[in-house]
């Protein structure tokens, strides 16, 4: 149904009355009549700014929380990890570059920027994201999300050791302590043999290593900022990482292991279109229209969504240790990401928020 927002256009202006009558009988993608904007619910570009903010935050909160579940469903449907991750990234990268081309953004990058883009793509998406696929072979999607939730803490801790990066304040350090205490709560029953298994410890170890590699990629991207548009740079990162993962899948002989089931294909399509393209586009838009501290709140909403969906859809177990660990981790991440920072000892490199999506 056509919604009309009156701005500078007067209700009784003949020209505007004629425009209302003309456009009330058809669906519009949006138009302006001397300040009168026509809104189409199916076209986000015509929505009011507040509606766009709500939709973009909802996308980050929900969609990036569901990617852990989608990965686990794909792995359970016999998608081998390297092939699964590679086939997700290659189409997603091409789509993002296509969107950039339609927007008229330059696709050219300098040799220096290209080297940085490839390095960051390998660290973030091969080292970090592919590590999540490997880890979810041994641990549930909810537990994986809780470990990934520690990413802002690893990044803040690593930055505090570098003289030209921002350092946490006292509240930020308290968040670091709480967050890592939450990780200890998750590990304690598995180390003591109270619950869990040795294979879960293996999966947790793989995911922690993956977060370290993602942290390294994030710091490299901050220390070597590129001039290319964010979507263009991300598209090239996905292509570079996707090509590397296809090579890994080929060396490991994974292509013959793929089983084309509805669940597997559906999870792959969802991760390509929604998990990567839609969610990342929303992330980039939010960075331009909302404070980075607000945008990063997805980091402590995603794990709660992931844990709930893992329990609801896949019946993944949730015990008291996991609930306690989740509460402590989320509190720590909330404190750390919302706390102000101090300049580095040798000045501060401009902070660029990095997504921690999978």
**Radius of gyration (Å):** 22 Å
| CA distance, first residue to last residue | 36 Å
Q: Return residue spans where pLDDT drops below 50 for at least 5 consecutive residues.
A: 1-11, 21-37
* Number of helices, counting only DSSP H or I runs of 4 residues or more: 13
Q: What string gives the helices and strands in order? A: EHEEHHHHHEHHHHHHHE
List the domain count as a whole number.
2
The strand line-up of the biggest sheet is: 1-3-2
Q: Quick one: overall form?
A: globular
* Oligomeric state of shown chains: single chain
Helix vs. strand class: mainly alpha
Can you give the mean pLDDT? Answer: 85
The major beta sheet can be summarized as:
3 strands, antiparallel
What does this structure look like?
The longest helix has 28 residues, at 49-76. The strands form two sheets. The chain has a three-stranded antiparallel β-sheet with strand order 1-3-2. A two-stranded antiparallel sheet has the order 4-5. The protein contains 13 helices and five strands. It folds into two domains: 1-47, no CATH class; 48-342, no CATH class. A hairpin with a 2-residue loop joins strand 2 and strand 3. It has 358 residues and is mainly alpha-helical.
């Amino acid at each position: 149904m056509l919604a009309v927002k009156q701005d500078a256009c007067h209700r009784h202006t003949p020209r505007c009355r004629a425009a209302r009558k003309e456009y009330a009988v058809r669906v519009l993608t949006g138009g302006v009549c001397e300040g009168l904007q026509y809104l189409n619910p199916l076209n986000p570009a015509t929505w009011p700014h507040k509606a766009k903010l709500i939709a973009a935050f909802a996308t980050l909160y929900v969609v990036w929380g569901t990617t852990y579940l989608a990965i686990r469903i794909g792995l359970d449907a016999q998608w081998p990890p390297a092939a699964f991750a590679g086939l997700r990234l290659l189409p997603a990268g091409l789509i993002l570059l296509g969107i950039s081309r339609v927007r008229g953004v330059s696709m050219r990058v300098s040799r220096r920027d290209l080297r940085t883009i490839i390095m960051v793509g390998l660290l973030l998406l091969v080292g970090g994201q592919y590590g999540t696929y490997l880890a979810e072979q041994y641990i549930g999607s909810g537990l994986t999300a809780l470990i990934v939730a520690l990413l802002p803490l690893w990044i803040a801790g690593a930055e505090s050791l570098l003289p030209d990066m921002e350092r946490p304040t006292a509240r930020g350090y308290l968040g670091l302590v709480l967050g890592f205490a939450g990780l200890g709560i998750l590990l304690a029953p598995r180390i003591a043999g109270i619950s869990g298994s040795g294979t879960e410890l293996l999966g947790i170890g793989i995911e922690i290593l993956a977060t370290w590699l993602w942290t390294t990629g994030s710091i490299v991207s901050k220390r070597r900022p590129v001039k290319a548009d964010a979507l263009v740079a991300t598209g090239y990162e996905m292509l570079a990482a996707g090509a590397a993962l296809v090579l890994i899948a080929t060396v490991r002989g994974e292509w013959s292991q793929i089983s084309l089931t509805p669940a597997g294909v559906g999870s792959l399509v969802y991760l390509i279109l929604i998990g990567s393209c839609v969610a990342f586009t929303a992330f980039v838009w939010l960075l331009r229209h909302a404070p980075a501290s607000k945008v990063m709140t997805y980091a402590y909403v995603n794990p709660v969504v992931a844990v709930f969906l893992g329990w609801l859809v896949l019946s993944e177990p949730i015990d008291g240790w996991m609930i306690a660990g989740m509460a402590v981790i989320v509190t720590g991440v909330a404190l750390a990401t919302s706390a102000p920072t101090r300049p580095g000892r040798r000045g501060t490199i401009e902070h660029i928020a990095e997504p921690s999506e999978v």
